[in-house]
Amino acid sequence: MFNVRVQVTYKDSVLDPQGQAVQKAIERLGFDGVSGMRIGKSFEMQVAGDDQAAVEKKVAQICDQLLANPNMEQYHYDIQKVATNQ
Amino acid sequence: MKFAVLVFPGSNCDADLYHAIEDVCHENAEYVPYTAASLAGFDAVLVPGGFSYGDYLRSGAIAKLAPIMTAVKAFAAAGKPVIGICNGFQILTELGLLPGVLLPNRQTHFICDTVALNVTNAGTMFTQHYMPNEQIRLPIAHGEGNYYCDAETLERLKVNHQIAFTYQNDVNGSLANIAGVTNEAGNVLGMMPHPERAVETLLGSDDGQRLFAALITSIRKGGQ
User: Fold this and answer.
1) What's the CATH superfamily of A2-81?
2) What positions belong to coiled-coil segments (chain A) (predicted)?
3) Cα(A7)–Cα(A37) distance, rounded to whole angstroms?
């Protein structure tokens, strides 16, 4: 079993108006020096299996086919084997 | 002639499409639930607006996996006409039947308005009853209508005359003011404006009526 966390964000070439609005709000709060704000999506899931390479392949397929739209988004994932009690 | 009006959980323009076909165009329309597997006997498929699956994940992202969509893909691949309006457009891009994607509006809020459009390609089976570059007015109602594609795709859209409708003004941040595109073969149309809400002068405009009339003309010609 693996814990998987997927991060989906807009490609750098895609404007993120919500991210810009949040960045402006941060400036209004009085914080300076904050730039490059991008809003994305985070997914957490458990994937069964012992073979990390096979699980990663499955996760990449899930991202390609559903979690991210390659027309506008990119993704990366972190994967961690769940320690079993046996 | 029989039109399939698809119905997903969260569709809300299905009744408008049904009304446009049955009461204005005097052709047969039938609701087809998302759980159906076949489109046998239909001459055209209409994918309505709304918020299929609550727009969860991305608008259209879950609907593309509904059981009926396998039949929609085969229907389109056979060269038969498919129109996706608003959420229907979003679904068809997610499904891969149309290029590009619909991002959240540049303004980050929902827009409900009637806007001026240009018929950029009056040569399609859906637009042949308009004059080239004719200006028409249609209602829009969307939060995610900001058309986007990469530079190569945009070039291909232009070269292949796949841009059917453009906004006269920048409405939502859409690339090249694109409001509607067809696939390369020209039998699949997606558009954010709502022609089905503009089929009677009593309701403000009948500019959308000619889109359905053009499609009916095309189907008749094809059937002869």
Assistant:
1) Phosphoribosylformylglycinamidine synthase subunit PurS (3.30.1280.10)
2) none
3) 15
